Amino acid sequence: MTARVASTLGSLALLLLVAACAKSFEIPIETPIKPKLDTSPFQRVLVAGFIAGGTDDVDGNLETTRLLRSQLRTKSQLRVIDSDALPLVEVANEGRDAPADAPPPPIKEEKDLEGYEHVFANAEYWKRIGEEHQEPLIVTGTVLFTTMQRNGVVQQNREVYDSFGRRSVVPVRMFVERKGFSLDGRFIFIDGRSGARLHTENFNEQILYNANQTTPALSSYFELMDRLIPAFLSTLSSQKIKGTRFLLQ
Question: What's the mean pLDDT in 172-179?
Answer without folding.
Answer: 78
